[in-house]
Amino acid sequence: RFCLPLVLASLPAMATGEEIPPALQDSWGDFWLFRFFVNAAGYASIVVPGFLLIQYFKRRNYLETGRGICFPVIKSCVFGSEVKSVHQEDGSLPPRVEPTESSTARQVFKLLFCAAGLQASYLTWGVLQERVMTRTYGATETDPGEKFKDSQFLVFMNRILAFTVAGLYCALTKQPRHGAPMYKYSFASLSNILSSWCQYEALKYVSFPTQVLAKASKVIPVMMMGKLVSRKSYEYWEYLTAALISVGVSMFLLSSAPNRHVSTVTTFSGVVLLAGYIIFDSFTSNWQDALFTYKMSPVQMMFGVNIFSCLFTVGSLLEQGALLESLRFMARHSEFTAHAVLLSVCSACGQLFIFYTINQFGAAVFTIIMTLRQAFAILLSCLIYGHTVTVVGGLGVAVVFMALFLRVYARSRMKKRSKKLPPGETPVQKV
Questions:
Q1: Which of helix, strand or coil describes residue 376?
Q2: For the whole model, what pTM was predicted?
Q3: Which range is the signal sequence, renumbered to this chain (predicted)?
Q4: In sequence order, which residues have a C-beta less than 8 Å from that of residue 216 and are 6 or more positions away?
Q5: What is the torsional sign of CA 201, 207, 210, 211?
Q6: C-beta contacts of 89-95 below 8 A and 24+ residues apart
Q7: Alpha helix (H) ranges present in 30-89?
Q8: What's the rounded Cα separation, in Å, for the pair 168 and 166?
């Protein structure tokens, strides 16, 4: 809750770094595509041996024949308990506590607490993210300063703290008996790392408001994929809101003031990275939803995913020699150290606020709060970092968020109506 005031107090310092055009600062070794394949090779050096070991233990039927001190660890990592639970009503989370008339004031306080926590955590995170990725550190009158370039190190910082927080929470509170094979977390972990990396890298090529609108419009590719692959059916309001989002995003992008540093290459790179973020993030959420068929809490999910995230990122950083270089950068620039630590704190706290909000008030309230957060994030970014938005672009942003709120309202109405349907009828599947 106190992160946002701290950031607002330090806004002048955050905006002082000089922005360097990506086309002028990147050598071929810093180009995002090269870095992507280098990082992927590092992850493969861990994934491939792990995959071979898992196949070896399964072929040997180790669950039946294994013995010794390593048996419990191998059983937990490869086989688990294989006991699945029936889906909850929302498919992933335990039943939320319904508010009662006698505790209205308490529920209002909880709602305000959740809203303030989410807004403070993620608005601070967004401001810091743009500061770290687009501005220099150590700039003086004679020295232009240097820019931090390794997005993977920032992902590692976020994940190591999230892993620590989730581990402490699981140790101090009662959790369901864990049954999922540990290796299954690695799939969501890998896609989560890649989506976060794409998100950081995209800020080198597109503005933060553009990135936020791209996140808001990811419902469109999800619907297209559902229609083409799964033959899903959607209602008229879903097509209407998807069309409104497309129109709003197009208005914003086409009306943005031209930047003299932007080239076709950098624009294309930004679009590809944003597409990569949406694809990897969509896979993460779907895979996590499948994992929730095992009896586990959201914090256990957070712990399991972040174990592998830390393993993958630190392994890749050590193989590249980038971990020591990033630590040297932190030693040279104490301001960057403070930003990186606060970035990680906001990310970890934000995840806990997500779980608590959905558990207490449901997904619809959470979606409204996070949609408002996206609007506030665009406004803050424009105020702090001087992004120009034309009148048409502002209307486009308004259209996007109006469509998002319309989706939340229509979905809640459909959910209420589906509860009243006769037993033999089922509502149309939605995204």
A1: helix
A2: 0.79
A3: 1-17
A4: 245, 249, 371, 374, 400, 401, 404
A5: positive
A6: 90/358, 90/362, 90/363, 91/289, 91/292, 92/288, 92/289, 92/292, 92/298, 93/292, 93/298, 93/355, 93/358, 93/359, 94/297, 94/359
A7: 32-59, 62-65, 71-74
A8: 6
